[in-house]
Write a structure and sequence with these properties.
Elements: H1 29-40, H2 54-77, H3 84-97, E1 101-102, E2 115-118, E3 121-123, E4 138-147, E5 150-159, H4 165-183, H5 191-204, E6 208-209, E7 215-217, E8 224-228, E9 245-248, E10 251-253, E11 259-261, E12 269-271, E13 277-279, E14 282-286, E15 291-295
Helix pairs in contact: 2-3, 4-5
The structure holds 2-amino-4-trifluoromethylsulfanyl-butyric acid and cobalt (II) ion (CO).
Length: 296
């Protein structure tokens, strides 16, 4: 009898774990070995379930069509005098009209179908008939959709009528922060490099980035691993591997980074100093040679 091994080597000729139907040796073997080399060097690496299949990616893209249509429609209708409850109605109309389900509704008990966060509200603002948008407000609309079990997630800022120069700049720089992060979504590099690019762009414009709330893997569930910081150091964090899908969604504050939670509704996050906060969110696929934005 030959030598006994504690673990059998994966059968190179068996069908690949990814479901492609192709032999492992012609499919993900090289990929797995590359990940293992990073892991042996002490790198945090994604588990197999975070690697999306072709079918997963198609599913997420179809879900994203609805999510982006929601935000497009909000963009067409949003105006001074509108309540944030009306935004919730638009999300419901578009989402159900296109056969989707709003992912926020009932998520950990969240009472509405979308988050609407105005001015010093950082995130998780609850749509309400009592919140009327006024000229000069900035509002984040954060929308998430489920279609056939696939999740899409993105958010945009809207400026209501004429907005002060300093608020406009906050909104624009926050958008640039997301783009700076996106440029650093490069396969076989570390997530912290992406986070740091986001953070540095905010800092060089005199802003701070919220530390406690970040992005997340997304696609087969609403919130998957990894948790994505936007204040992490370069050279840290999970290895970005082709097939991973996660969000880039920094919350950028005009004043300090400190935040607090609404004790009455248990959801809404505000800046401690009452200064405005902005956020944009995109959902990104790591590809063989860079990144593809699945939802924005
Ligand atoms: N859409 C948010 C995100 O970007 C999550 C909102 S959860 C909710 O991750 F319950 F507040 F809707
Ligand atoms: Co998100």
């Amino acid at each position: 009898m030959g030598p006994r091994l504690t673990m059998r080597k994966p059968d190179r000729n068996a069908p690949c774990w990814c479901g492609s139907g192709i032999k492992y040796k012609h499919c993900h073997q090289e990929f797995d070995e590359k990940i293992m080399r990073f892991q042996m060097r002490g790198c945090e690496v994604p588990s197999r379930k975070l690697i999306k299949t072709k079918e997963d990616i198609e599913g997420i893209k179809k879900s994203a069509v609805i999510n982006m249509a929601c935000l497009d429609e909000v963009g067409r209708q949003i105006c001074p005098g509108m309540t944030t409850l009306r935004i919730d109605e638009i999300i419901n109309e578009v989402t159900y009209g296109m056969g989707g389900i709003p992912a926020d509704l009932g998520y950990q008990g969240f009472p509405k179908s979308v988050c609407t966060s105005v001015n010093e509200e950082v995130c998780h603002g609850i749509p309400s008939p009592d919140v009327v948008l006024r000229e000069g407000d900035i509002v984040n609309v954060d929308c998430s959709t489920i279609l056939n079990g696939y999740f899409s997630d993105s958010s945009r800022m809207f400026m209501i009528g004429e907005v002060s120069e300093e608020k406009r700049r906050l909104v624009e720089v926050t958008r640039e922060c997301v783009d700076e992060g996106l440029k650093k979504v490069i396969p076989w590099t570390l997530m912290g490099d992406m986070s740091d690019a986001v953070h540095r762009h905010a800092m060089r414009n005199g802003y701070t980035v919220v530390r406690e709330i970040g992005g997340h893997g997304c696609g087969n569930a609403f919130h998957e691993d990894p948790w994505v910081s936007f204040v992490a150091a370069p050279g840290t964090g999970m290895l970005m591997v082709p097939g991973m899908v996660f969000t880039i969604e920094p919350m950028v504050n005009m004043g300090g980074a400190a935040i607090y939670e609404d004790r009455k509704n248990g959801w809404t996050i505000y800046t401690k100093d009452g200064k405005p906060s902005a956020q944009w969110e995109i959902e990104v696929l790591v590809t063989e040679d860079g990144a593809e934005v699945l939802c924005r």
